[in-house]
Task: inverse folding
């Protein structure tokens, strides 16, 4: 397996660092629009793991917005797999470039949605991933695999759904991805500050888009933002957090392969973050359209959303000042294999102090990066295989979860996952 | 009386329009940095009241930031009174210009405060009006009067305090100014929108400054923003609104002339507005310091607070789309003249539809403008007189409130004010 990793931002960087501890591939070329960023990742691997390990890594410049250039770099390095680790805005071009180069493809977020033009809070327009599934025939005919949505959410959550369907339930009522964290960022003086661990620009996009829900009878439909709030109890000391519906890939992926009555995604934004997003929307500060503003050099045109991002601390710099854990998981309900009511929460928790120490990577970013590396290893070993455009739930979940949980000294990733019985809680 | 009105913005314009129905003065010169704005006010008066009335008005250009220019314009028009109707930022220069020209002076907001450098949420630094009171000796020696804080709040609220002390109480526990409104602004489609009726820039300044409180034993002290929330019931259908401590002139004025145990100012911001202001502060979007932001023409420097103002509808344009009432008043408690516990709310309500129809002025702005005109009339008739730097509570409240409430056809302003007994409510 020869991997072209596109993007050496937070997640791309962590993918390379996690893969550096494994040996299932022949080469990984880390590529970025800014080649120096890709080189930094390889230099970190060299410093931490030595020249031998680093010799399996290369660095390259790439323009992810250009499918020809993606195909060119993939061919040049004889890539068998293109791993997309950049903003979802560039899914279509990397997706096309990989197919053109005859490589398999993986991503962690799918092609973007467009709201319904007249009824956005009830009906879907263009859904997440629609553009990619429309091209499934091309991938099948080429005998190539596009494994889409293979991060942590979507990704691990979808693996959990497959596992629940195959091993825990005879009849599934709801598959509900639930994500929450107790991360805290402090300033130099030790005071808690408001500093999201990920791009506020993307969070605004994700959270203010109409959330999507799937039901067996109704199919896919949308709701107003922040709908169906519920307080979900997260494990390992994270505790109760207010979760709301958010547009996410799981809802478009799971129903394609798994039989359930209802599929949802709720994000544990917490009351403060929900208030922040609602207020930004109320004031028009979520807008990506420029407004005219006075400045010392005369009037200028800036997008309010860019100003919000500029006024907050840079998420790339807050890892060392952050403490706490993030939890990704799937809450499932229905009838167990014995035919009796069952409710479980399958989850994985990532601790920022541990990921910073082990990988110089923030826990949210690191947790996202872990899962595509496991998937690549299963594909390299031939344990997973397929062609066409497939989600993680199209594959057997058992070997994924085993490899993930197995201790490192026994050949696994040493990342325990949990199963909590929730009925009656 | 010859009045130089400085500022033909919302309040200045309304002062001229209200005065146009009265005859206590010889001339009013409306001045503005933008002379066309002053001319528009005079043209409105001419169109509404005819050339005769308009002949008592003139228009002039003025630079309020230059005391020499203020004095020059005042002398040129032989002004006996300078009426300051611009942003409080320009109080020091107009104040100085009036004295230099040998004119009396009135304003509706006082010289700005500066927070305590190390303990801003407990101790006062430079208080509102400190700069003006420091010059009281100059005004006394010159035999000239500076009547400061003579709008609605401060202004009418201080008149109510004097009235309460002279006619309603034998011992005052608390003088608490309480301000609230039920104003609603709609977009073209009739949907309610978030559109403050006054500059968000100024509101941020006012509400995020440490609020000031006075107590007989402690003197003046400050608190964190939004302290001591209470739900206050406003009259005439406005109803209950959450009010919080806000920095305001009444608290520095009333204790200088009236004996009370405690003096407060609470503003009925309402929960939504408080949330907005807190969120802006949390995200650093209240900041007036420029941040670097990407734009289509490369990085630019803008102050987040300017972007917030630019993203909201222009307050100058919303009058015709606004409905509702605003209420200014004083809640006072203590022992009545009979020595028994008493609690009253003295208030004045202004209805936007009425002020728009009668004056083409938004109700918040119009209500502010009404009171200095009444005060000027009392000074012109010799009913009020004095020298030095004095607040409205230094004068007899009875003739003010009588002239205000008397019907227009009987020579008054036709503006009823209310007194509600509140004990036990």
Result:
């Amino acid at each position: 397996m020869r991997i072209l990793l596109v993007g050496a931002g937070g997640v791309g960087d962590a993918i390379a660092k996690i893969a550096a501890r494994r040996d299932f591939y022949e080469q990984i070329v880390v590529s970025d629009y800014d080649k120096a960023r890709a080189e930094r990742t390889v230099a970190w691997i060299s410093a931490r793991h030595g020249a031998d390990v680093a010799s399996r890594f290369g660095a390259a410049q790439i323009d992810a917005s250009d499918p020809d250039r993606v195909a060119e770099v993939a061919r040049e390095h004889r890539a068998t797999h293109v791993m997309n680790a950049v903003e979802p805005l560039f899914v279509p071009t990397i997706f096309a470039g990989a197919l053109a180069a005859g490589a398999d493809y993986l991503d962690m977020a799918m092609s973007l949605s467009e709201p319904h033009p007249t009824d956005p809070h009830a009906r879907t327009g263009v859904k997440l991933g629609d553009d990619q599934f429309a091209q499934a025939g091309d991938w099948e005919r080429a005998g190539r695999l596009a494994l889409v949505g293979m991060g942590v959410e979507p990704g691990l959550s979808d693996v959990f759904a497959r596992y629940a369907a195959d091993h825990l339930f005879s009849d599934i009522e709801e598959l509900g991805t639930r994500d929450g964290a107790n991360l805290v960022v402090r300033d130099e003086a030790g005071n808690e500050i408001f500093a999201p661990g990920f791009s506020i620009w993307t969070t605004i996009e994700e959270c203010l888009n109409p959330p999507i829900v799937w039901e067996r009878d109704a199919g896919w439909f949308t709701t107003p933002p922040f709908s169906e709030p519920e307080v979900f109890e997260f494990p390992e000391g994270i505790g109760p957090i207010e979760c709301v519906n958010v547009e996410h890939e799981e809802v478009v992926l799971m129903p394609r392969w798994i039989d359930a009555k209802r599929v949802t995604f709720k994000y544990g934004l917490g009351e403060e973050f929900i208030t922040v997003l609602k207020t930004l929307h109320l004031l028009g500060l979520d807008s990506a359209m420029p407004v005219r503003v006075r400045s010392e050099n005369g009037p200028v045109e800036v997008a309010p959303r860019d100003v919000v991002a500029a006024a907050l601390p840079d998420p790339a710099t807050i890892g060392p000042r952050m403490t706490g854990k993030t939890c990704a998981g799937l809450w499932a309900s229905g009838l167990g294999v014995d035919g009796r009511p069952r409710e479980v929460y399958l989850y994985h928790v990532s601790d920022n102090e541990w990921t910073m120490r082990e990988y110089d990577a923030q826990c949210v970013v690191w947790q996202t990066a872990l899962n595509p590396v496991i998937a690549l290893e299963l594909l390299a070993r031939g344990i997973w295989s397929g062609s066409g455009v497939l989600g993680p739930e199209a594959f057997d979940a058992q070997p994924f979860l085993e490899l993930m949980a197995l201790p490192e000294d026994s050949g696994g990733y040493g990342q325990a996952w949990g199963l909590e019985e929730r009925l009656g809680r």
